[in-house]
Amino acid sequence: MKAEEFDKRFDRGEDVAKHLDFSKARRPGREQRRVNVDFPTWMIQSLDREAERLGVARQALIKMVVAQHIEKART
């Protein structure tokens, strides 16, 4: 299917997902990279308590806190 036809179908609200190869899809600027950070035991315990209170995983809490800090620093 040509791009013009694809665009017309998309604009009409048709499901065009069957025409896409999601195995190669990526989100530029959102690729993940692994980093290792060493925390003292007391900090891990505090993180775990807060993560449990919020009902999220430790890693999710760390990402949230870092994202909030970065956003605050931008403003």
Oligomer state equals single chain
The radius of gyration over CA amounts to: 21 Å
SSE order, one letter for each helix or strand: HHH
Sheet with the most strands, sense and barrel status:
none
Instruction: Tell me the fraction of residues in β-strands, as a range.
Output: under 5%
Number of strands: 0
Overall mean pLDDT score? 93
Q: Could you give the distance between the termini?
A: 45 Å
* Helix percentage range: 40-55%
How many H/I helices?
3
Label the structural class.
mainly alpha
What sort of overall outline do the alpha carbons produce when their principal axes are compared? elongated
Count of individual domains: 1
Low-confidence stretches: none
Give structural notes.
The protein is an all-alpha fold. It has one domain (3-74). The protein is 53% helix and 0% strand. It is built from three helices and no strands. It has helices at residues 3-11, 41-54, 58-74. Helix 2 packs across helix 3 (58-74). The chain is elongated.
